[in-house]
Design brief:
single chain, alpha/beta, Archaeosine Trna-guanine Transglycosylase, Chain: A, domain 4, 2 domains, five-stranded parallel sheet, three-stranded mixed sheet, 21% strand
Length: 249
């Protein structure tokens, strides 16, 4: 059984697309649209789509649940560091994951931070929650892995570009506009190698699930310029902690 972590950084004004894209990815995998579990201690944020009850109203009860007890207590104290409000609430999150899986629905628990970091050096409290969740599952004898959305093992894909877009890519663009089908782009596993082709030339880079830019999906460029792209990915992921399922294993 799987559980997914997610940071909504950059999606604040595109929540409808987020719900649509994640539903398409899960449908391709044979599951119902996923349930988002909000583990923020407070919903008073700047991102309009995630402010107060905005995302809850948009997603509806089948696709959203707020669990502030799994939030970072230090936020309310305006202090640094990570301290989960109620660590034992990870057991209730596990109950929800098991119950929803019986309905063919998987769970994505989320906060705002872009990258979670690693268990040894968490950058975000969702990494700590993931560890608590896996620990709760282990204590009950439940087989569970938890990692950043969209999960899955890295793959290799090829995309054809126009000369204009290929030139931008070689100029070390941070993202690449893609013509990949939505479910393929949004569900691209972290650490995947993308090879762009144009007029007989090619260029490869390490990528992950598509982000949204001006209402369109774009692929992030995580690592490039390495003779061994997989080594480049390991270096990148060593700090970001988005690999799967090493996150909380």
């Amino acid at each position: 059984m799987e559980a997914f972590l997610f940071g909504y950084w950059g999606w604040g004004s595109n929540t409808e697309l987020l719900l649509d894209f994640t539903a398409q990815v899960e449908d391709k995998r044979g599951f119902a649209p996923p349930c988002f579990v909000d583990i923020r201690v407070s919903r008073s944020v700047r991102a309009a789509g995630f402010r107060e009850q905005a995302f809850e109203k948009l997603a509806g009860p089948d696709r959203y649940l707020w669990m502030p007890e799994l939030g970072n207590k230090r936020i309310t104290e305006r202090a640094t560091g990570i301290e989960i409000v109620e660590p034992r609430a990870a057991g209730r999150l596990l109950d929800l994951i098991v119950a929803r899986r019986e309905k063919n629905q998987r769970v994505i628990f989320f906060c705002a931070c872009e990258f979670p970091g690693t268990s040894a050096a968490p950058q975000c409290h969702r990494r700590v929650v993931a560890d608590l969740l896996v620990g709760a599952a282990r204590s009950r004898g439940v087989s569970l892995v938890a990692g950043e959305w969209p999960g899955g093992q890295p793959v290799e894909v090829t995309v054809d570009l126009s000369p204009k877009d290929y030139k931008k890519l070689l100029g070390r663009a941070a993202t690449l506009k893609t013509a990949l089908p939505t479910a393929d782009a949004a569900g691209l596993p972290w650490g995947s190698i993308v090879t762009a082709r144009c007029d007989g030339e090619s260029y490869s880079f390490v990528s992950g699930p598509a982000r949204v830019s001006r209402g369109e999906l774009v692929l992030p460029l995580c690592a490039w310029g390495y003779e061994d792209l997989r080594e480049g990915w390991r270096e990148y992921d060593g700090g970001a902690g988005v690999g799967w399922p090493s996150a909380a294993g």
